[in-house]
Protein: Ser/Thr protein kinase RdoA involved in Cpx stress response, MazF antagonist
Amino acid sequence: MQDNIYDYIAKAALAQYGMAEGERYFLGHSGSVTFCIKTQSEKFLLRIHQPKSMLQGDVWQRPQVIESELLWLTALRHSTEVVVQKPLKNLQDRWLTQVLADETGEMFYCSLLHWIDGNNLNGQRTPEQAYQLGLLLARLHQHSSQWQLPENFVRPAYDKNRLQAALSALYPAVLQQLISTEDYETLKVATYQVQGMIETLSQTQNIWGLIHADLHEGNYLLHNDELRPIDFARCGFGYYLYDIASSLQYLLPIVRPSFFEGYQTIRKLPEHYLQITEGFFIMALIEVFSFHVNNPQEHKWISESVPYIVKEHVHPYLEGESFLFAKY
Structure:
């Protein structure tokens, strides 16, 4: 029944782009419901902004927040060589399309993006691919640091308050015995230490700005030796080193130096960047665990991963030992 509603919403939304006859292919449902749309000449990505779990937080579903993501994508496509999915306006000249569900009276917000070609990479990244990923992230940060934000631009911030919220959101895993009390307390101590580090940092434009915040291996495509970022749905304001740490957690330690090498061909890294990145690495891990904690399919992964992370990353961090180039 739910799938039928989404198909109805998709068809009604496409009519507002003059594409009512476009072929619809359901792709998946996570942060939003996605369809591949095919017309006679082009392909598009339709997103119905309805997360699988509303526990992820309503902030991501606010129209102004979604529209701000689309504005950044438009600016990136217009002002950089980075290939991203360019948003389309509907026939009313609006970025967001509203569809009212007849049965429930619920309002759904939809957006339409141009499809871009490319393939997800299988296996682990090579040093050259890690280098290219560093280049890509540096290009995004370069644009972010120079772009004049439009009026009423709103995206969430990856700051010390968000870290605190992520830690709190993870506590139900203790009650469900997915995480031991001891490991949670260790994560809490690390959180306080990272928050203290954040308090020493300024929010000047060379180190803080718009970030992708979710550039894992599923969120960039390879096309003719070029990496193309996709899924900016979690983008927000944050430290560029947090964005780096968020991506590094998915790379083997042996290729992480290549990532930094690629990044620094475009942007200079701040002093003591390694220690700061390791703090943000811990923050990014807590963010990922909290994001998945309400998904029963991820419970086994959480219960197996947290003890390893605490032993191999958090304890060394708290003891002042570097782990970024040694531990995966």
